[in-house]
Design goal:
By secondary structure, this protein is mainly α. The termini are far apart. It contains 18 helices and 3 strands. Helix 9 crosses helix 15. The chain has a 3-stranded antiparallel sheet with strand order 1-3-2. Among the domains are: 137-281, Serine Threonine Protein Phosphatase 5, Tetratricopeptide repeat (Alpha Horseshoe), CATH 1.25.40; 282-341, no CATH class.
Length: 401
């Protein structure tokens, strides 16, 4: 019985070379771009794609699953390089059937995550990360793979504007990541994304605990010391230096492929949080003082010639907007030029809480005394039959109609 021979992946490629003008038909090893009109690169890419497709088709005849897996992997890598991301995703997904070990499955999922990030398919990123979490990696690979998972999940949550969740994931990323995932995200990016998301979504106590005192994230902050300084200034209530540092790097962040569309929102949230923290200790705040801290370039624009506040100045408009939204619980005294905050009467709150506790205690004591008197007077209704033992009553047929 004759054995079925697998077709060569390069069968017919010599004819393709002649048609494409890659050579003189003497095999793929000697294929050259003969055209010098700027289209040679495109022709070679098409030829490489043809080779990989033919190689994959021929590998299907092979009984060795590793060869089929490698064929799909090479094809997916090629599609990814030329920007055909849907085809790359399909090629990588076909690898799953031929993956025989956990490391193979993990490699396939990480490649799919890379393609999904480039496609902007953030649900696909989260789905693949969840599948990775269900795998049991080797001890020597587990820390590195978990760091990649946290970084990828943080990127997807950043893209979804879930800044607090993104901050938690970036802060949980192990420094072992280093440059092991540089095709997706660098260690410097982890520091910037994690620091800005934390500043925009955490209060000062959480920033101190989860960022500045985080030993693992400290390694990332050392790569971007200005982020650490900005967070330190914010925790120390030195809001002007904090905002100055962030403003100095705004142009750089606007060029970041993942961060650029979130910069206005993040900066606005950080600025609003700074205002909230600034007015907490005071019942009245001079608007002149606030302007010097939060908008020093508008210090000469907030007052009219008569000395009253100009309600049309940008900083006052910003304050009014925050007050109307309920973000700042305060009022503006236009005549005196002060921001009056709403102070709660702590003594009244304590007294109200004590009175409420007393009422609850009196009600509970009344119910207990009532039960004791009922038992003492013998007014309690005893259970009937087997119900006294906690079991269901049984009809023995002795009851008469």
């Amino acid at each position: 019985m004759e054995s079925l021979a697998s077709p060569s992946p390069f069968a017919g490629l010599a004819d393709v070379e002649m048609v494409m003008g890659l050579g003189d038909g003497d095999g793929i090893g000697n294929s050259k771009v003969g055209k010098k009109d700027g289209k040679g690169k495109v022709v070679r890419v098409e030829a490489k794609g043809f080779i990989l497709v033919q190689s994959r088709q021929s590998s299907i005849w092979s009984p060795i699953s590793a060869i089929i897996k490698m064929g799909n992997e090479d094809l997916g890598h090629h599609y990814h390089l030329i920007g055909d991301l849907p085809s790359a995703s399909k090629a990588y997904s076909r690898m799953r059937e031929y993956c025989t070990t956990t490391s193979h499955i993990g490699s396939m999922l990480f490649r799919n995550i890379h393609v999904a990030i480039d496609r902007g398919d953030w649900l696909g990123v989260q789905s693949n990360v969840q599948r990775l979490r269900n795998l049991q990696f080797k001890p020597e690979d587990e820390a590195k793979n978990k760091a990649k998972m946290f970084a990828a999940l943080g990127l997807s949550q950043l893209a979804s504007s879930a800044y607090h969740s993104a901050a938690i994931n970036f802060l949980s990323t192990d420094p072992i990541l280093a440059d092991n995932y540089k095709e997706v995200i660098s260690a410097n990016d982890i520091a910037v994304y994690g620091g800005l998301c934390a500043l925009a979504s955490m209060d000062r106590a959480d920033l101190q605990t989860h960022v500045l005192q985080n030993k693992s994230f400290r390694n990332f902050l050392e790569l971007e010391p200005h982020i650490r300084r900005a967070i330190s200034f914010f925790c120390a209530s030195k809001f002007r230096p904090c905002l100055d540092i962030l403003e100095a790097y705004r142009a750089d962040y606007l060029l970041d492929i993942h961060l650029q569309k979130h910069v206005p929102v993040l900066y606005s949230r950080i600025r609003t949080k700074a205002m909230q923290q600034y007015i907490i200790p005071y019942s009245r705040v001079m608007i002149d003082t606030m302007v010097k801290i939060f908008s020093p370039d508008q210090a000469a624009l907030i007052k009219r010639d008569g000395g009253t506040i100009d309600l049309q100045s940008p900083f006052i408009v910003e304050l009014i907007d925050l007050i109307q939204k309920g973000t700042l619980d305060a009022r503006i005294d236009v005549e005196k030029g002060v921001l009056v905050t709403k102070q709660t009467n702590t003594r009244e709150d304590v007294q109200a809480a004590v009175i409420q506790n007393i009422k609850e205690y009196v009600n509970a004591a009344h119910i207990q005394l009532l039960r004791m008197n009922i038992l003492h007077a013998g007014l309690e209704v005893p259970p009937v039959g087997a119900e006294a033992d906690g079991g269901p009553a049984v009809d023995d047929g002795s009851a008469k109609e």
